[in-house]
Amino acid sequence: MTDTDFTHDPAAKSWVESANGHPDFPVQNLPLGIFAPGGKGKRGGAAIGDEILDIAAVADLLDGDAVEAAKLAGQDTLNALLGCGPASARALRRGLFGLLTDESRAGKVRPHLYAAADCAMHVPVLVGDYTDFYTGIHHAMNIGKQFRPDNPLLPNYKHVPIGYHGRSSSIRVSGAEVTRPVGQKKPAEEGGNPGFGPAARLDYEMEMAIWIGKGNDLGQPIPIAQAGDHIAGMSILNDWSARDLQAWEYQPLGPFLAKNFHSSISPWIVTGDALAPFRTAQPARPDGDPQPLPYLTDAADQKSGAFAITMEVLLTTPTMRSAGAEPHRLSKGPMTAMYWTAAQLVAHHAVNGCNLRPGDLLGTGTLSGADDDTMGSLMEISRGGKQPLELPNGETRAFLEDGDEIIMRAYGDADGAVRIGFGECRAVIRAAPEIRS
Q: If you ran DSSP here, which 8-state letter would residue 113 be given?
C-alpha cells in the first residue's frame, strides 16, 4: 500500500494560483491524462488548477527516474508510462510537485502550461481490454428485488467477484455524445415476436474505473498482496445501459448490445499515490456472510484497500438548459459501497492465469449506497420505470430522453488531507440513427 509523503502536505501551495483551493486539481493531486493544445498533437499532461502541464516538455528540468517517466509521457497514450509500475509514476509525481511548488522554477515551467479550457482531452490510454464488475451490493440487491423479490442475490454473489467482458473500442472520453442504441426487445407477451427499435429505457450507471498499470504474464496469477502494485489509478466511469435490450438478451450469456454501444470515462487518471490519504478500511461483511477464499484474503488490503471517495450524478434536460437552470443532482454516494476491494478484483481477474496489460480497464459496477438518494442508476430510482422521478421544473424521467445530459463527479475527502477530485464525466444523449433494411 502507498504511504503518504511530502506531496500530500496540506500546507503545500503552488505558484500556479488557480491550483490553490481548487476542488479537483490542487498540487496534491497531479492526475495524468492525454491532451492536445490548440493546433498541436496529443501528449501526456498533468492537471494543475485550471491549467495542464506538458510533462515531456519539462523532462529536462527533472532528475533521476522522473526524467525517463516524463519522456514516456510524450507519447499519445500513457500505456508505456503506466506499464513501468508505481515506482516510475511516483518519481514523476514527486518531480512535478517540486517544479510546481518552487517559485524559482516558475519561469522555466510556465511556458509549458496550457489553459485547460483551450485543450482537447482524449482517452488517456489505448484500452486493450475492459471488464465490468458488479461490486455494488446495494445495486445488486435493488435490481435483484425487481426480478426476484424473495431472493434478490444469486448464490455466487458473496463468494466470487462477478464481472463480464465489455467492449473497449466504444470507450469514449467525457464530452463525447452518446447515440441512443437500437436493438431487439423482449416480446410484449409470452411466445410473441420481439420488438425492434431505439432503446426506450436508456440508463446511466455510476461507477469508478480502475486502470491497470504493470501487467502479468499469461498463466501467472497476481497474488492478492501484490495486486495493488498493478493498479495505476482511477477515473470516473459511466457504463451506459439499454435496459429494454438487456432484458431480452442477457440470458444465458450476459450483457451484449445493451452495454457495448458506449462507455464514458473522465479524462484524468488519479494515481494510486495521489489517493493514498483517502485509503480506508473495507467495510466489514455483515454477520453470516461468507469470508472470501484465501486467494482473495489479505489483512493489509482489508485494513486500507477501500477509498473514501464520494461520487455524484447530475442531470440536465434541454428544457432546463434553455431556462438556465442548474443541473439536478440525482444521487450522491460513497465508493465504499463496493463489496470487493479493487485489489480483490485484480487478484480474481488473474487467478486463472489471465494476463492483464497496461491500460486495461476494470469497472467497479454501479455503486449505489443503502439509501434512496444514493442509488446509482435510474433503473433503481424509478423502480424499473414504475415510479418516474419528478424534476424541480415539473418534468419527469423514468429513463433518459434525447437531449438529456448526465454529469458525474467524484472526489476524495478525508481529515488532514486536501480534497482532490477526478474532474467530470459528462455526455449528452442524441437520437438513434435511422435503420434501413
A: E
Residues of each domain in the chain carrying CATH 2.30.30.230: 6-122
Q: Does the predicted TM-score (pTM) go above 0.70?
A: yes
67-79 in b/e form (b: 16+ CB < 10 A) is bbbbbbbbbebbb
pLDDT of residue 149: 85
Is residue 139 among the annotated active site residues?
yes
pLDDT for residue 1: 58
CATH T-level assignment (fold) for domain 6-122 = SH3 type barrels. (2.30.30)
Which phi and psi (to 5°) does residue 25 adopt?
-125, 60
Assess contact for 384 and 409: CB atoms under 8 A. no
CA distance 389 to 117: 33
Question: In this structure, what C-alpha cell is assigned to residue 437?
Answer: 433494411
Q: How far does Cα 337 stand from its chain's mean position? A: 14
Cβ contacts of 155 within 8 Å, gap of 6 or more = none
Beta-carbon count within 10 A of 430 CB: 12
pLDDT in tens, 365-404: 999 999 999 999 999 999 999 999 999 999 999 999 999 9
Q: Is the dihedral of CA 49, 51, 56, 58 positive or negative?
A: negative
Residues 22, 138, 139, 230: which is the catalytic one? 139
Report the CATH superfamily, name and number, of domain 130-430. Answer: Fumarylacetoacetase-like, C-terminal domain (3.90.850.10)
Q: Is the dihedral of CA 34, 36, 42, 46 positive or negative?
A: negative
Measured N-to-C along each axis, helices 65-72 and 86-101 cross at an angle, to the nearest 10 degrees, of 100
Give the separation between CA 11 and CA 219, rounded to whole angstroms: 46
CA–CA separation, 160 vs 202, rounded Å? 28
**Given a cut of 70, is residue 226 above it in pLDDT?**
yes
